[in-house]
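Kindly review these tokens for lecture notes.

. . .
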Amino acid sequence: MPHATYPRLARQCFTPYETDMTKSEKHAVFVPEPNPLRVTVLVFTGASIMCVASAIDPLRAANRIAGETRFEWQLVSASGDPAMTTCGLPLAVAGRFDPVSTTGMLVIIAGFGAARHATPALLSSIRRAARNARAVGGIEAGTWLVARAGLLEGRAATTHWEDLEDFAAAFPGVDVRPDRYVIDGPVFTTGGASPTFDLMLHLIRSRLGMAAALDVASVFIYDQSRAAADAQPLVSLGRLDGYDPRLAHAIRLMEAHVDRPLTVAAIARRAMVTPRTLETVFRKSIGETPGSYYLRLRLNAARRLVVDTRVAMADIAARTGFSSAGAFSRAFSRSFGEAPTRVRSRSSNPGRNA
């Protein structure tokens, strides 16, 4: 798509979309819920393995951070056979796509050669599955299959930036946008791997809270620098979208002082705000106080050491800013519901970094 077209599309689309986004999401899955969300990922040969990973790995990380299953997923293909990704790696699947299977969210991932998959039988199956799911969407060229199934008529959508012009010509009834990802009611679309990661962070943030989304982003050393409605080709500026820069500064200070925690007053002073203002920023953006977030950040760091290493508990306590192993164990138990020694004993992969 010619880059000169972007300013015109931006003027037409960005402001209305940003205004209506939250309203249009309320009937789908982007809402706080205690129950696990079941996700079915329908993947086709020709898909990018990065798109698949961006759709699934943030959910895995969210479960690990939450300490419980908040997302369930399975990969399927149209035939039940492994899908061959663009890098030549076959992707194992749980079986054949079943349109009547119960799922909360249907994610369709396709890439090169998506058109040849759009048989009448497959499109009928997608329509049937969409009736049973609470949300359905296309990743990269998966948007074409969602559109050919008739699920985007009268809705806003995006696809990979290289295909936007052809997609708009093929589906005149779709409000085509150059956004990174688009959510319109129960239908979502993304432009590629990085926007898909953005979308999944948004899903996690919507269901589990901002703090969980920040933790997931940290697992992948990922800085989400763009909002959903930003045009796809823009360069990342390294900032998770939507939060106050004062919050970012404070969290960076906390991360740099896990082993020797700063007082909230010291953090506020370095962030050049009052302690009261810092508390207001945290409560508004994350929903908890700076002190409680700081403690949880340290305990999450400790939990990773407990689960993934053989480091002694006393050393973990010291590394994460606790005065003693006993104080660490008590704080850990209050947060995670069981002692760190018990968590380690049932861990499936202790000693990874030992």
Q: What stands out?
A: Confidence is low (pLDDT under 50) at residues 1-26, 231-241, 349-354.
